[in-house]
Amino acid sequence: MWLAGCRASTSENRVSGVSGGTYAGPVSTTTPRAWLPVAAVSCTLVFWASAFVAIRHLGHDFSPGALSLGRLVVGSLCLGVVALGRGVPRPSKGDWVSLVAIGILWFGVYNVALNEGERRVDAGTAAMLIQVSPVLIALLAAVFLGERFTVHLGVGLALAFSGVAVIALSTSPGGDRDVLGVALCLLSAAVYSVSLILQKPLVGRLAAVHVTWLACTIGAIVCLPFAGQLVSEAADAPAASIWWLVYLGVFPTAIAFTTYAYALRHMTAGNLGVTTYLVPPITIVMGVVFLSEAPPTMAYAGGALALVGVAVARRKPRSASKKVAAAPEAAMLKR
User: Fold this and answer.
1) What are the tens digits of pLDDT across the range 114-137?
2) Which of 95, 132, 136, 269 would disulfide-bridge 91, Cβ 3.0–4.6 Å?
3) CA 126 to CA 188: how far, in whole Å?
4) How far apart are CA 132 and CA 110, in angstroms?
5) What is the CA radius of gyration of the chain?
6) What residue stretches are annotated with the EamA domain (predicted)?
7) Distance in angstroms (rounded) separating the CA atoms of residues 207 and 43
8) Model-level pTM?
């Protein structure tokens, strides 16, 4: 799934995104047809939600590493067309250090951990777990970027991880408790959050699509040790599964980034951020329809508690909200 966070001012919106990319630049002053931004964000949410379902489905035919490599190669090729159309990126040596770290963590570790996690928990549960990313991002920003650690953040952190604990202790559809699957999904959320903090300074110097493309390409290179598995498993996989793998690289990865960036230009960051709460419900519905599975009953309660924690953590003090427009710290990947 793609996640995004932003800081808005009267002159500019700067947004850092997850599963897929980061947009930084002035908000468009042109007014498109009213339905276009809504259509764009709707496509984004559906693609992000579908990624969780596709990963769960493909777990039968592809191992976590092979699936990561296949998706990243397709995504890198698609993003490369768009990125190079805007010119050749010229990162500095310092930029390359951050890009390599983001590529390894966000596109490498994130995808492999999520793919393995979804072999153990259903798609809806995974989507709910990834939604704790905003709390982790806010915590990291307070620790490493000098942003204020508020009471709301502390309470939100406690609520979010209480929800994670409830999910971890809930019974899986197969009748077993798979805490490891929950931990792997939480690891994905954690490395995404770290990557977003690393990415924030880059978007002031490089175009968002260049950052995303380079990091995705680095992630694909990191996953090259799984090339043998990908070739072998692709040869044995049915044609439908091959197309699902291509779908993951094209739609939730490349296209969803583009539609989300377009929506950001024509909608307020706060309004757009609220829509990301729809990703888990959409994922759950898709899981029921396409996979005939849903999260265990207690996981719903845990997911709701985690989302309440995210909402509380994102709440800005009144004095601060008068100066800075509140903006979402995450929206969902990829996945």
Assistant:
1) 999 999 888 988 988 888 877 787
2) 95
3) 10
4) 14
5) 19
6) 41-168, 180-312
7) 23
8) 0.77
